[in-house]
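I am still getting used to backbone structure tokens and would like to learn alongside you. Please make up or recall a protein chain and show it to me in full. Would you write everything just below, so we can both look at the same thing?
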Amino acid sequence: MDYIKKEDKLAFISCIEVALMRRGNTNYNFIVAKLASLYNCDVVDCFEHPEYLLTVLKQVYKEDYKSILDDIKLELDKLVGIEEMKAEFFKIMED
């Protein structure tokens, strides 16, 4: 991804967090804890490293992790002008 506006990145990450939080505080906190323990990072760092989030989602949601990806997509669809960012992110997330 070339030059990315800080506001776009923050909006992108916010959409991811909203989608994750909708699944419940317990799972959200579990995801945050796993990201910290496995990769020493937080959800915001998953913008540059979506593979970290993918690994953790597969661990937390098992076979159902694709449904959370659908939730993230729906949330991100509310944003305009970030198609390239979404494409790059989901190229890795839909491994």
Notes: Residues 35 and 70 are 20 Å apart (CA to CA). The mean pLDDT is 92.
